[in-house]
UniProtKB/TrEMBL annotation:
Domain of life per record: Bacteria
Organism name: Niveispirillum lacus
Protein name as catalogued: Uncharacterized protein
């Protein structure tokens, strides 16, 4: 399952939960829509946070690589 499919599955699950909560609370479509919007925002926030963590991880690895490269170059000059 790729990220888009995973996101769509999470979104569908969130919509089902929102609909069930709305039915349980006796709310109409307005409550459902509010829960759905909140669920979508939460999913987007999670995706953005995961993307940011991946970017930080990659940047850290590049920084470590360049530090090792600089250390190796300095050692070769000696």
């Amino acid at each position: 399952m790729d990220r888009t499919e995973e996101f769509e599955a999470d979104l569908a699950a969130g919509a089902r939960r929102a609909l069930e909560r709305g039915r349980d609370a006796g709310e109409g479509e307005e409550g459902f829509e509010a829960d759905l919007v909140a669920g979508v925002r939460e999913q987007l926030r999670r995706r953005e946070e995961a993307r940011r963590r991946r970017e930080e991880w990659v940047q850290k690895r590049w920084d470590e690589f360049y530090q090792r490269l600089a250390a190796d170059a300095a050692a070769m000059e000696d």
